[in-house]
């Protein structure tokens, strides 16, 4: 008998259902398979198309329609005032972390309003700083935090991906792409690392700096 890896047993995956655009692809369903789910306000609408059982619904419920609320009377709710210092999405993330989440997928939240989309991307970087594995997906687009260390992304050949430097990047490696890099330095504001193409699974490494990887899977 193969013994279970204790590190695997200690991990807890959550899908955070955010409002915004979503394409329910097989890839996304696979990425959240087996995860527990928490919905943030109108993100509850994604639960049905993803067949995600939601254990908690949080928010001020200003964007969840009366029909949506009536359709899910049995889901436990945590209601917050509209005057608050966090978005509903961040509240949902906090709730998952309190439940021991170690791996998060932010579902939705990349399209629509730019302010909220950028806020969600900033949350990814904050989570990375806390040692939490997290990425965001709208189905067609995925976002991963890029911080010092290694990052592997399972992508089909032909997928497009871009690295966005949010600070100067030092020692950037990109492998598994048409235009690989080895210990490259990328200036803040450079478009050098946009629109690369995966030739298979992609591996990135960074010595110093902060950025984001945006991926557009070819197999959705």
Briefly say what this structure is.
With 220 residues, the protein is α/β, with parallel strands linked by helices. Helix content is 23%, strand content 35%. The chain folds into 2 domains: 11-139, 3-Layer(aba) Sandwich (Rossmann fold); 149-216.
Biggest beta-sheet profile: 13 strands, mixed
Count the beta strands. Answer: 13
State the shape.
globular
Distance between the termini: 36 Å
Question: Within the CATH hierarchy, at the fold level, what is the topology of the largest domain?
Answer: Rossmann fold
Low-confidence stretches: 1-7
Task: Please report which band the strand proportion falls in: under 5%, 5-15%, 15-25%, 25-35%, 35-45% or over 45%.
Answer: 35-45%
- Report the helical percentage: 10-25%
Give average pLDDT, whole number.
92
Going by CATH, the architecture of the largest domain would be: 3-Layer(aba) Sandwich
Rg over alpha carbons: 18 Å
Number of helices: 6
Helix and strand composition category: alpha/beta
What is the CATH H-level superfamily of the largest domain? Answer: Thiamin pyrophosphokinase, catalytic domain
Q: How many discrete structural domains? A: 2
CATH class designation of the largest domain: Alpha Beta
Order of helices and strands: HEHEHEHEHEHEEEEEEEE
């Amino acid at each position: 008998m193969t013994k279970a890896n204790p590190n695997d047993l200690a991990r807890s995956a959550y899908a955070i259902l955010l409002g915004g655009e979503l394409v329910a692809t097989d890839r996304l369903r696979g990425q959240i398979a087996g995860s527990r789910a928490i919905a943030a306000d109108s993100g509850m609408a994604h639960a049905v198309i993803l067949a995600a059982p939601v254990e908690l619904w949080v928010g001020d419920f200003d964007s969840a329609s009366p029909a949506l609320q009536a359709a899910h009377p049995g889901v436990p709710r945590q209601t917050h005032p509209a005057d608050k210092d966090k978005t509903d999405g961040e509240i949902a993330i906090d709730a998952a972390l309190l439940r021991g989440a170690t791996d998060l997928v932010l579902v939705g939240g990349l399209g629509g309003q730019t302010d909220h989309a950028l806020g969600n991307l900033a949350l990814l970087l904050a989570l990375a700083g806390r040692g939490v594995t997290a990425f965001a997906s709208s189905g067609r687009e995925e976002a991963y935090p890029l911080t010092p260390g290694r990052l592997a992304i399972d992508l089909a050949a032909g997928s497009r991906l871009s690295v966005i430097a949010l600070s100067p990047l030092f020692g950037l490696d990109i492998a598994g792409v048409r235009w690989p890099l080895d210990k490259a330095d990328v200036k803040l504001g450079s478009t050098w690392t946009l629109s690369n193409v995966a030739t298979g699974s992609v591996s990135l490494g960074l010595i110093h700096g902060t950025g984001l990887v945006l991926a557009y899977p070819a197999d959705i």
